[in-house]
């Protein structure tokens, strides 16, 4: 399958290591889709003009990700600061005056025509792409990572444009989870997924529930594991795997990411 990711890029700054790593949901999904066997992967986003943006571009080139339609503007790259707590990365702020916050992607005809050559477009809630989803949905299937956003008004406003929806639901009680799932089942998603931290993720296909089977692993760093799960699932599911098989391969993808620092490696000294 061929995947294009459109949206966010950042560098994750590890305060305990004095090192930063390229990342951002859409970049992480793009790289991990390629590592999971996607035939072609491209990325469109907005880069700053600093050293951190240069490092993201370097990593994308190394991973054979085409970003020819991305913009480069004057300004700082997104650079969230993170610290380690029992193997989990905790975000502790970062500069607010970044290009991710100052600029917004608006896709032009040439980019839409280019996008038609892919099987799936991945976008995240960090990409400020809500206004572009309707036009994208007319030419390609869309995968969307809602992350921790559970505002049903927001979800309903863009659900008609999305085939594959991903949510982080680790903090929900069993009762809250059941209620949330009931609301999601009423929406037109073909597949939706809820990750639950250390608990098995739940996948729903046309209302039928599948539960992830977790394996005992040693965790180095959980950064980007959810993005890697998304990429592994999308590539294999779109390539024709059954739900159980695609979930199993997605789990293996996330496990590999948990075994390294950063979303997909490439450390650089701050």
From TrEMBL:
InterPro entries: Carboh/pur_kinase_PfkB_CS, PfkB_dom, Ribokinase-like. One of its GO terms (molecular function) is kinase activity. PANTHER family: RIBOKINASE, SUGAR KINASE. It comes from the Bacteria. Keywords: Kinase, Transferase. This is Carbohydrate kinase. Residues 20-260 form the Carbohydrate kinase PfkB domain.
